[in-house]
Amino acid sequence: MNYQMDVSKEYQTARKSLFTLSLLFSLLFSVVLIADVLLVVLANEDYLVNLIISIVISILFVWFAIYFFSNIFNDVNEKYLFYRGYESGLKEEGEVELVSIDDELSYMNGLYVYAVSVRYINGLERIDKIIYSVNKDLGFRVGSKLSITTYRRILTKARLH
Amino acid sequence: MNSIKKNRIKNNMRYMWPVYLVSAVVIAIILNVIFGIVHKLPAYKTLTIFVSGEVTDSKGLQKDLLEKYQDKELKSVTTISAKPNEGHYNTKLTVPGYSSADVLIIPISKLNNLDIGYFALDLKDELITSFYSGYTLYSQKEVNYGIKINKELVKSYMNLPNEDCYMFLNGGSQNIGEYANKPNKDHDLALQLVKDWGI
Fold first, then answer.
1. B133 and B184 share a domain?
2. Fewest CB atoms within 10 A around its CB: which of A2, B51, B100, B157?
3. Contact in structure between B57 and B45 (CB atoms under 8 Å)
4. What is the mean pLDDT of residues A142-151?
Protein backbone atom coordinates (compact mmCIF):
# COMPACT_ATOMS: atom_id res chain seq x y z
CA MET A 1 0.00 0.00 0.00
CA ASN A 2 1.38 3.37 -1.04
CA TYR A 3 0.51 7.02 -0.59
CA GLN A 4 1.91 9.56 -3.05
CA MET A 5 1.05 13.17 -3.53
CA ASP A 6 0.53 14.03 -7.23
CA VAL A 7 2.95 16.96 -7.20
CA SER A 8 3.04 17.46 -10.97
CA LYS A 9 -0.76 17.75 -11.25
CA GLU A 10 -0.98 20.03 -8.21
CA TYR A 11 1.80 22.22 -9.65
CA GLN A 12 -0.08 22.62 -12.94
CA THR A 13 -3.32 23.41 -11.08
CA ALA A 14 -1.60 26.02 -8.88
CA ARG A 15 0.11 27.57 -11.92
CA LYS A 16 -3.20 27.86 -13.78
CA SER A 17 -4.88 29.37 -10.72
CA LEU A 18 -2.08 31.91 -10.35
CA PHE A 19 -2.34 32.88 -14.02
CA THR A 20 -6.15 33.15 -13.85
CA LEU A 21 -6.02 35.30 -10.72
CA SER A 22 -3.36 37.58 -12.24
CA LEU A 23 -5.41 37.95 -15.40
CA LEU A 24 -8.64 38.69 -13.54
CA PHE A 25 -6.92 41.24 -11.33
CA SER A 26 -5.32 42.93 -14.34
CA LEU A 27 -8.71 43.13 -16.05
CA LEU A 28 -10.36 44.58 -12.95
CA PHE A 29 -7.51 47.08 -12.56
CA SER A 30 -7.94 48.16 -16.20
CA VAL A 31 -11.69 48.61 -15.77
CA VAL A 32 -11.24 50.73 -12.63
CA LEU A 33 -8.48 52.78 -14.25
CA ILE A 34 -10.60 53.45 -17.35
CA ALA A 35 -13.58 54.35 -15.17
CA ASP A 36 -11.45 56.79 -13.16
CA VAL A 37 -9.94 58.38 -16.27
CA LEU A 38 -13.41 58.79 -17.82
CA LEU A 39 -14.75 60.32 -14.60
CA VAL A 40 -11.89 62.83 -14.58
CA VAL A 41 -12.04 63.66 -18.28
CA LEU A 42 -15.84 63.85 -18.58
CA ALA A 43 -16.30 66.01 -15.49
CA ASN A 44 -16.97 69.73 -15.84
CA GLU A 45 -16.05 72.57 -13.47
CA ASP A 46 -18.60 71.35 -10.90
CA TYR A 47 -16.91 67.98 -10.53
CA LEU A 48 -17.94 67.09 -6.97
CA VAL A 49 -20.21 64.18 -7.94
CA ASN A 50 -17.60 62.68 -10.27
CA LEU A 51 -14.92 63.15 -7.63
CA ILE A 52 -16.99 61.32 -4.99
CA ILE A 53 -17.83 58.46 -7.38
CA SER A 54 -14.18 58.18 -8.38
CA ILE A 55 -12.99 58.18 -4.76
CA VAL A 56 -15.53 55.50 -3.77
CA ILE A 57 -14.63 53.25 -6.72
CA SER A 58 -10.89 53.66 -6.14
CA ILE A 59 -11.05 53.06 -2.40
CA LEU A 60 -13.14 49.91 -2.86
CA PHE A 61 -10.71 48.67 -5.50
CA VAL A 62 -7.61 49.37 -3.40
CA TRP A 63 -9.19 47.73 -0.35
CA PHE A 64 -9.99 44.72 -2.50
CA ALA A 65 -6.42 44.75 -3.89
CA ILE A 66 -4.91 44.79 -0.38
CA TYR A 67 -7.15 41.90 0.68
CA PHE A 68 -6.54 40.08 -2.60
CA PHE A 69 -2.75 40.21 -2.41
CA SER A 70 -2.50 39.49 1.30
CA ASN A 71 -4.92 36.53 1.20
CA ILE A 72 -6.26 35.06 -2.03
CA PHE A 73 -3.24 35.65 -4.26
CA ASN A 74 -0.77 35.02 -1.47
CA ASP A 75 -2.31 31.58 -0.71
CA VAL A 76 -2.16 30.46 -4.33
CA ASN A 77 1.33 31.86 -4.77
CA GLU A 78 2.61 30.00 -1.68
CA LYS A 79 1.04 26.80 -2.97
CA TYR A 80 2.60 27.37 -6.39
CA LEU A 81 6.04 28.03 -4.87
CA PHE A 82 5.73 24.89 -2.73
CA TYR A 83 5.08 22.62 -5.72
CA ARG A 84 7.55 24.44 -7.97
CA GLY A 85 10.38 23.91 -5.49
CA TYR A 86 9.53 20.29 -4.86
CA GLU A 87 11.69 18.67 -7.58
CA SER A 88 14.91 20.41 -6.61
CA GLY A 89 14.02 20.95 -2.95
CA LEU A 90 15.57 19.19 0.03
CA LYS A 91 13.49 16.15 0.98
CA GLU A 92 13.71 14.20 4.19
CA GLU A 93 13.34 10.45 4.18
CA GLY A 94 12.93 8.11 7.12
CA GLU A 95 11.28 5.13 8.74
CA VAL A 96 8.46 5.98 11.11
CA GLU A 97 5.67 4.50 13.13
CA LEU A 98 2.30 6.21 12.59
CA VAL A 99 1.05 7.44 15.96
CA SER A 100 -2.04 9.52 15.15
CA ILE A 101 -3.67 11.89 12.66
CA ASP A 102 -5.25 15.08 13.93
CA ASP A 103 -8.88 15.84 12.99
CA GLU A 104 -8.41 19.59 12.69
CA LEU A 105 -7.18 21.34 9.56
CA SER A 106 -4.23 23.72 9.69
CA TYR A 107 -2.73 26.08 7.13
CA MET A 108 0.89 25.67 6.01
CA ASN A 109 2.89 26.61 2.86
CA GLY A 110 -0.32 27.53 1.05
CA LEU A 111 -1.88 24.14 1.80
CA TYR A 112 -4.63 23.05 4.17
CA VAL A 113 -3.14 20.14 6.09
CA TYR A 114 -3.73 17.72 8.95
CA ALA A 115 -1.10 17.25 11.66
CA VAL A 116 0.28 13.70 11.71
CA SER A 117 2.16 12.41 14.77
CA VAL A 118 4.93 9.97 13.85
CA ARG A 119 7.77 8.29 15.73
CA TYR A 120 11.02 8.21 13.77
CA ILE A 121 12.92 4.91 14.15
CA ASN A 122 16.67 5.15 13.90
CA GLY A 123 18.19 1.91 15.17
CA LEU A 124 17.27 1.83 18.82
CA GLU A 125 16.55 5.53 18.90
CA ARG A 126 12.93 6.81 18.76
CA ILE A 127 12.10 10.45 18.07
CA ASP A 128 8.52 11.81 18.12
CA LYS A 129 7.77 14.44 15.48
CA ILE A 130 4.80 16.19 13.91
CA ILE A 131 4.58 16.17 10.13
CA TYR A 132 1.65 17.29 7.98
CA SER A 133 -0.49 15.69 5.31
CA VAL A 134 -2.96 17.16 2.84
CA ASN A 135 -5.08 14.00 3.16
CA LYS A 136 -6.70 12.87 6.38
CA ASP A 137 -7.11 9.32 5.17
CA LEU A 138 -3.66 8.02 4.26
CA GLY A 139 -4.86 4.42 4.03
CA PHE A 140 -2.60 3.21 6.88
CA ARG A 141 -3.60 2.01 10.32
CA VAL A 142 -2.26 3.64 13.47
CA GLY A 143 0.86 1.76 14.53
CA SER A 144 1.90 0.90 10.98
CA LYS A 145 5.59 1.15 10.22
CA LEU A 146 6.17 3.31 7.16
CA SER A 147 8.94 4.56 4.92
CA ILE A 148 8.11 8.22 4.31
CA THR A 149 9.36 11.22 2.37
CA THR A 150 8.57 14.76 3.50
CA TYR A 151 9.21 18.10 1.87
CA ARG A 152 9.08 21.18 4.11
CA ARG A 153 7.52 18.90 6.77
CA ILE A 154 4.64 17.91 4.47
CA LEU A 155 4.21 14.22 3.68
CA THR A 156 4.64 13.56 -0.03
CA LYS A 157 5.28 9.79 -0.16
CA ALA A 158 4.58 6.88 2.19
CA ARG A 159 4.66 3.10 1.87
CA LEU A 160 4.43 0.22 4.30
CA HIS A 161 7.84 -0.75 5.56
CA MET B 1 -11.51 24.96 6.14
CA ASN B 2 -14.08 27.75 6.53
CA SER B 3 -13.21 28.40 10.18
CA ILE B 4 -9.51 28.67 9.26
CA LYS B 5 -10.35 31.10 6.46
CA LYS B 6 -12.56 33.14 8.79
CA ASN B 7 -9.78 33.32 11.36
CA ARG B 8 -7.25 34.34 8.74
CA ILE B 9 -9.57 37.09 7.45
CA LYS B 10 -10.15 38.23 11.03
CA ASN B 11 -6.42 38.35 11.67
CA ASN B 12 -5.87 40.18 8.40
CA MET B 13 -8.35 42.87 9.42
CA ARG B 14 -6.93 43.07 12.94
CA TYR B 15 -3.41 43.84 11.77
CA MET B 16 -4.02 45.49 8.41
CA TRP B 17 -6.70 48.06 9.33
CA PRO B 18 -4.20 50.97 9.41
CA VAL B 19 -3.20 50.12 5.82
CA TYR B 20 -6.88 50.19 4.74
CA LEU B 21 -7.38 53.51 6.54
CA VAL B 22 -4.24 55.20 5.20
CA SER B 23 -4.86 53.97 1.65
CA ALA B 24 -8.38 55.47 1.70
CA VAL B 25 -7.07 58.85 2.85
CA VAL B 26 -4.19 58.83 0.34
CA ILE B 27 -6.53 57.94 -2.55
CA ALA B 28 -8.98 60.68 -1.60
CA ILE B 29 -6.17 63.25 -1.49
CA ILE B 30 -4.58 62.10 -4.77
CA LEU B 31 -7.89 62.12 -6.67
CA ASN B 32 -8.81 65.50 -5.22
CA VAL B 33 -5.50 66.92 -6.46
CA ILE B 34 -5.89 65.29 -9.91
CA PHE B 35 -9.43 66.65 -10.33
CA GLY B 36 -8.23 70.05 -9.09
CA ILE B 37 -5.39 70.18 -11.61
CA VAL B 38 -7.40 68.88 -14.59
CA HIS B 39 -10.39 71.13 -13.91
CA LYS B 40 -8.56 74.17 -12.60
CA LEU B 41 -10.62 77.27 -13.28
CA PRO B 42 -9.14 79.30 -16.12
CA ALA B 43 -7.70 82.63 -15.02
CA TYR B 44 -10.39 84.57 -16.89
CA LYS B 45 -13.10 82.99 -14.72
CA THR B 46 -11.51 84.02 -11.42
CA LEU B 47 -10.92 87.41 -9.90
CA THR B 48 -8.32 88.09 -7.22
CA ILE B 49 -8.37 91.39 -5.38
CA PHE B 50 -5.57 92.70 -3.17
CA VAL B 51 -7.03 94.93 -0.43
CA SER B 52 -4.88 97.30 1.63
CA GLY B 53 -7.06 97.10 4.69
CA GLU B 54 -9.43 94.60 6.22
CA VAL B 55 -11.98 92.50 4.35
CA THR B 56 -15.01 92.35 6.61
CA ASP B 57 -17.43 90.38 4.43
CA SER B 58 -15.63 88.24 1.90
CA LYS B 59 -18.65 85.93 1.42
CA GLY B 60 -20.93 88.87 0.68
CA LEU B 61 -18.35 90.32 -1.71
CA GLN B 62 -18.00 87.00 -3.50
CA LYS B 63 -21.77 86.49 -3.71
CA ASP B 64 -22.45 89.98 -5.05
CA LEU B 65 -19.66 89.87 -7.63
CA LEU B 66 -20.64 86.38 -8.81
CA GLU B 67 -24.18 87.62 -9.37
CA LYS B 68 -23.08 90.87 -11.00
CA TYR B 69 -20.64 89.23 -13.45
CA GLN B 70 -22.64 86.04 -14.03
CA ASP B 71 -22.83 86.74 -17.77
CA LYS B 72 -19.04 87.03 -17.89
CA GLU B 73 -18.69 83.50 -16.45
CA LEU B 74 -17.07 84.63 -13.19
CA LYS B 75 -16.77 81.51 -11.00
CA SER B 76 -14.54 82.50 -8.12
CA VAL B 77 -13.53 85.63 -6.21
CA THR B 78 -10.51 85.64 -3.93
CA THR B 79 -9.27 88.42 -1.71
CA ILE B 80 -5.81 88.99 -0.27
CA SER B 81 -5.73 91.55 2.51
CA ALA B 82 -3.02 93.33 4.47
CA LYS B 83 -3.31 96.39 6.69
CA PRO B 84 -0.91 99.15 5.56
CA ASN B 85 0.41 99.63 9.10
CA GLU B 86 1.32 95.96 9.49
CA GLY B 87 4.96 94.89 9.34
CA HIS B 88 4.47 92.34 6.59
CA TYR B 89 2.38 94.63 4.36
CA ASN B 90 5.10 95.05 1.74
CA THR B 91 5.75 91.30 1.64
CA LYS B 92 2.06 90.54 1.09
CA LEU B 93 1.80 93.25 -1.52
CA THR B 94 4.82 92.11 -3.50
CA VAL B 95 4.48 88.32 -3.20
CA PRO B 96 0.81 87.27 -3.52
CA GLY B 97 -0.26 90.76 -4.57
CA TYR B 98 1.98 91.35 -7.58
CA SER B 99 1.99 87.71 -8.65
CA SER B 100 -1.68 86.76 -8.45
CA ALA B 101 -3.96 89.75 -7.87
CA ASP B 102 -5.92 91.11 -10.83
CA VAL B 103 -6.81 94.34 -9.06
CA LEU B 104 -4.79 95.96 -6.25
CA ILE B 105 -6.30 98.58 -3.93
CA ILE B 106 -3.50 100.69 -2.43
CA PRO B 107 -3.73 103.87 -0.25
CA ILE B 108 -2.04 107.01 -1.55
CA SER B 109 0.40 107.15 1.37
CA LYS B 110 1.99 103.90 0.23
CA LEU B 111 2.25 104.82 -3.44
CA ASN B 112 5.17 107.26 -3.17
CA ASN B 113 7.53 104.46 -2.18
CA LEU B 114 6.38 102.06 -4.91
CA ASP B 115 7.53 101.69 -8.50
CA ILE B 116 3.99 101.25 -9.82
CA GLY B 117 5.14 100.58 -13.39
CA TYR B 118 6.78 97.35 -12.15
CA PHE B 119 3.43 95.60 -11.84
CA ALA B 120 0.57 97.89 -12.89
CA LEU B 121 -0.95 98.18 -16.33
CA ASP B 122 -0.21 101.44 -18.09
CA LEU B 123 -3.61 103.09 -18.64
CA LYS B 124 -3.16 104.34 -22.16
CA ASP B 125 -5.38 107.03 -23.65
CA GLU B 126 -7.29 104.49 -25.68
CA LEU B 127 -8.13 102.49 -22.55
CA ILE B 128 -9.09 105.61 -20.60
CA THR B 129 -11.34 106.75 -23.43
CA SER B 130 -13.17 103.45 -23.70
CA PHE B 131 -13.42 102.59 -19.98
CA TYR B 132 -12.38 105.34 -17.57
CA SER B 133 -13.31 108.61 -19.14
CA GLY B 134 -13.93 111.18 -16.39
CA TYR B 135 -12.47 109.06 -13.58
CA THR B 136 -9.88 110.38 -11.11
CA LEU B 137 -6.52 108.97 -12.14
CA TYR B 138 -3.24 108.35 -10.33
CA SER B 139 -0.08 109.11 -12.32
CA GLN B 140 3.57 108.43 -11.69
CA LYS B 141 6.29 109.86 -13.95
CA GLU B 142 3.53 111.23 -16.19
CA VAL B 143 2.09 107.78 -16.84
CA ASN B 144 -1.45 106.94 -15.72
CA TYR B 145 -1.77 103.78 -13.65
CA GLY B 146 -4.58 103.99 -11.07
CA ILE B 147 -8.25 104.83 -10.72
CA LYS B 148 -9.59 106.29 -7.48
CA ILE B 149 -11.95 103.92 -5.67
CA ASN B 150 -15.41 104.94 -4.50
CA LYS B 151 -15.20 103.86 -0.88
CA GLU B 152 -18.95 104.13 -0.38
CA LEU B 153 -19.49 101.27 -2.85
CA VAL B 154 -17.21 98.86 -1.01
CA LYS B 155 -17.62 99.88 2.64
CA SER B 156 -19.95 96.94 3.33
CA TYR B 157 -17.23 94.49 2.28
CA MET B 158 -14.00 96.07 3.48
CA ASN B 159 -12.45 98.66 5.78
CA LEU B 160 -10.05 100.79 3.78
CA PRO B 161 -7.60 103.32 5.32
CA ASN B 162 -8.94 106.79 6.06
CA GLU B 163 -7.33 108.36 2.99
CA ASP B 164 -7.67 108.25 -0.78
CA CYS B 165 -7.18 104.78 -2.24
CA TYR B 166 -6.51 103.83 -5.84
CA MET B 167 -7.13 100.66 -7.84
CA PHE B 168 -4.42 99.28 -10.10
CA LEU B 169 -4.76 96.65 -12.79
CA ASN B 170 -2.06 94.00 -12.69
CA GLY B 171 -0.19 93.94 -16.01
CA GLY B 172 0.05 90.14 -15.81
CA SER B 173 -3.70 89.63 -15.32
CA GLN B 174 -5.74 87.58 -17.79
CA ASN B 175 -8.80 89.70 -17.02
CA ILE B 176 -7.76 92.91 -18.77
CA GLY B 177 -9.20 92.15 -22.21
CA GLU B 178 -7.05 93.16 -25.15
CA TYR B 179 -4.29 94.45 -22.85
CA ALA B 180 -3.44 91.01 -21.46
CA ASN B 181 -0.54 88.77 -22.57
CA LYS B 182 -3.17 86.57 -24.21
CA PRO B 183 -5.50 89.27 -25.55
CA ASN B 184 -9.21 88.46 -25.51
CA LYS B 185 -11.64 91.35 -25.37
CA ASP B 186 -14.30 89.19 -23.67
CA HIS B 187 -12.06 88.44 -20.67
CA ASP B 188 -12.27 91.88 -19.10
CA LEU B 189 -13.52 91.22 -15.56
CA ALA B 190 -10.82 93.33 -13.92
CA LEU B 191 -11.44 96.25 -16.30
CA GLN B 192 -15.16 96.08 -15.49
CA LEU B 193 -14.60 95.85 -11.73
CA VAL B 194 -12.36 98.93 -11.71
CA LYS B 195 -14.92 100.73 -13.84
CA ASP B 196 -17.76 99.79 -11.48
CA TRP B 197 -15.90 100.67 -8.26
CA GLY B 198 -14.08 103.72 -9.62
CA ILE B 199 -14.99 107.34 -9.20
1. yes
2. A2
3. no
4. 93
